[in-house]
Fold:
Amino acid sequence: MPGEQQGKAAGGWFVYLLRCADGSYYTGITTDLERRLREHNGSPRGARYTRSRRPVSLVYSEPCADRSAACRRECQLRRLPRSAKKALRESS
Structure:
């Protein structure tokens, strides 16, 4: 996927978009995409929203310079309408 990075970012942050089993989307930030996806799918450390909507799959991610930038981008993505999130997913 364009913008998607595997594994850990050396000191970097990612913003990501998950597709839940019920078809909804979840947006979050992390420094380790693989670990965070595992947490969402099988750990009590997964977000409360995704715990009842498993399994989830990673459909989009992009690197960010720092936590602050990741939080700002997360806020932007959360405000997007469903159709824009679907377009983001399909473009990657």
The longest strand covers residues 57-64. The helical segments are 33-42, 48-51, 67-79, 82-91. The chain has one domain: 13-80. Residues 67-79 form the longest helix (13 residues).
